[in-house]
Design a protein that fits this description.
124 residues; seven-stranded mixed β-sheet; four-stranded antiparallel β-sheet; 11 strands; 0% helix
Length: 124
Amino acid sequence: QLQLVQSGGGLVQPGGSLRLSCVAFGLNLDYYTIGWFRRASGNEREGVSCISTSDGMTDYADSVKGRFTISADHAKSTVYLQMKTLKSEDTAVYYCAAALGKPAELVANEYDYWGQGTQVTVSS
């Protein structure tokens, strides 16, 4: 059974760092693109970053470029989102998601399988 299980998140002060993890069960990462999305209160779900684990290609939203880094550990079937220099506007529920192949865009409707979500709160 295909399942994405997330961990990480929590409360951090502005300027701090957090790392999110997404473990994939029941799928071969080589055939999927893993994305990270977030939904802030009252907003739509937005794409944050994605990685094509077969070739390592990555993409980032402009709002997180230079601050967030996505990576994959094939041996652990895990994708990470390292978040640094966090800002209050990064506060949201973060989701990882899997799409077969390489989606044309970092948009939610291109992804088929979703993690359970994890809260990230950036506040002093």
